């Protein structure tokens, strides 16, 4: 179930045909989900752009987390690899697996982008259950249709005290450009959850029973943004900053223990790997970028909501249970004033 299927619309802009990050042409997403026994609740998600460099920019909202490869993105302004999402203690294996899958020449190198959020409430995070073959399977499965909720890297995640995970959405602005968002949502406190400005978290239960030593709100969120607009790296970074507004509109606040990162890449300039001394570029008129800011904020808010709505109640490590956001109670809470 997604927000639109429940009659919940965020913002005024239209969505793309899938209402997903794959509405940006050429983007594919794949998952490997690992649910085994009583304590394995994890996985990996890959976002695969077309196989060429694209302009990109990133933003750190709060730094208690990891998104590898950002220094090269900041220095070069380019995204040059697929993006992986997984749990905190599996970043290294996912990164190495993406290097191995890159099809490099003998003297080529790779600095893959891999983000993480902590799934230790439900998952044996120290068991290192994500392996290279799981990354390969996610790459093989990558396509335009995206499963959401408790899948891939989002399998064991908790969002605003309810079961969280992977969510996606898109918006199309008046000039015809598409902005797509994908989140791995593992952040926030239940009491602060807002949807369309309504304090639903205060009105809907039951709550998660947290693992000892893991206070509510101690998690993180990774936001990936893609657009077909012809943006330069500085403009990509400015879109990435606006992801924080979408997080905030749902009640997230980038707490001290949270790792909150946003990455935006733009496919509107192709051929950046050409060897000519000069490469012609296109640039969106900066006077029209506000429309993309609005698209980012709405798509991020709806992506978080879709992650919540698609997730099912899950029991995992040590018998910890995280409850799904109940749809009927949510609709009732949205109807109250």
Describe this structure in words.
It is a single chain. By secondary structure, the protein is an alpha+beta fold. The protein has helices at residues 70-76, 91-100, 132-141, 233-249, 290-310, 327-335, and strands at 28-36, 40-48, 54-63, 78-79, 83-87, 113-117, 158-159, 162-163, 165-172, 178-186, 220-227, 259-266, 314-315, 321-322. α2 (91-100) crosses α3 and α4 packs across α5 (290-310). The protein is globular, with a radius of gyration of 19 Å.
Provide the CATH superfamily of the domain at 4-26 and 49-81 and 152-271 and 284-335.
L-amino peptidase D-ALA esterase/amidase
Count of DSSP-assigned helices: 6
The level-1 CATH class of the domain at 4-26 and 49-81 and 152-271 and 284-335: Alpha Beta
Low-confidence stretches: 208-212
Architecture per CATH nomenclature, i.e. the level-2 architecture of the domain at 4-26 and 49-81 and 152-271 and 284-335: 4-Layer Sandwich
List the helices and strands and how they pair.
Blueprint: E1 28-36, E2 40-48, E3 54-63, H1 70-76, E4 78-79, E5 83-87, H2 91-100, E6 113-117, H3 132-141, E7 158-159, E8 162-163, E9 165-172, E10 178-186, E11 220-227, H4 233-249, E12 259-266, H5 290-310, E13 314-315, E14 321-322, H6 327-335
Parallel strand pairs: 5-6, 11-12
Antiparallel strand pairs: 1-2, 2-5, 3-4, 3-12, 7-8, 9-10, 10-11, 13-14
Helix pairs in contact: 2-3, 4-5
Keywords:
6-stranded mixed beta sheet, alpha+beta, 24% strand, 4-stranded mixed beta sheet
Write a concise synopsis of the structure shown:
With 337 residues, this protein is α+β, with helices and mostly antiparallel strands. The chain has helices at 70-76, 91-100, 132-141, 233-249, 290-310, 327-335; strands at 28-36, 40-48, 54-63, 78-79, 83-87, 113-117, 158-159, 162-163, 165-172, 178-186, 220-227, 259-266, 314-315, 321-322.
């Amino acid at each position: 179930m997604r927000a639109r299927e429940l009659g919940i619309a965020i913002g005024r802009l239209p969505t793309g045909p899938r209402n997903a990050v794959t509405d940006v042409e050429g983007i594919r997403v794949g998952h490997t989900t690992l649910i085994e026994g009583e304590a394995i609740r994890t996985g990996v998600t890959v976002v695969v752009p077309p196989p060429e460099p694209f302009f990109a920019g990133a933003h750190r909202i709060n730094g208690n987390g990891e998104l590898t490869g950002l220094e090269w993105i900041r220095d070069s302004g380019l995204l040059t690899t697929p993006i992986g999402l997984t749990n905190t203690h599996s970043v290294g294996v996912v990164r190495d697996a993406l290097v191995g899958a890159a099809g490099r020449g003998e003297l080529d190198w790779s600095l893959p982008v891999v983000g993480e959020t902590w799934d230790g409430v439900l998952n044996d995070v120290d068991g290192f259950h994500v392996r290279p073959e799981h990354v390969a399977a996610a790459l093989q499965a990558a396509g335009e249709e995206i499963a959401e909720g408790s899948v891939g890297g989002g399998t064991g995640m908790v969002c605003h005290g309810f079961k969280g995970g992977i969510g996606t959405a898109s918006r199309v602005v008046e000039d015809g450009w598409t902005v797509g968002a994908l989140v791995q949502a593992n952040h926030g406190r239940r009491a602060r959850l807002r949807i369309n400005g309504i304090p639903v978290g205060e009105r809907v239960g039951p709550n998660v029973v947290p693992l000892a030593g893991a206070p509510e709100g101690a998690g993180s969120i990774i936001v990936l943004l893609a657009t077909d607009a012809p943006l330069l790296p500085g403009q990509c970074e400015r879109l990435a900053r606006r992801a924080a507004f979408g997080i905030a509109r749902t009640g997230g606040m980038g707490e001290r223990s949270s790792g909150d990162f946003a990455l935006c890449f733009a496919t509107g300039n192709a051929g950046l790997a050409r060897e000519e001394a000069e490469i012609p570029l296109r640039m969106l008129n900066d006077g029209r970028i506000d429309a993309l800011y609005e698209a980012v904020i709405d798509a991020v808010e709806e992506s978080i909501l879709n992650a919540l709505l698609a997730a099912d109640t899950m029991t995992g490590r040590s018998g910890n249970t995280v409850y799904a956001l109940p749809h009927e109670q949510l609709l009732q809470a949205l109807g109250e004033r």
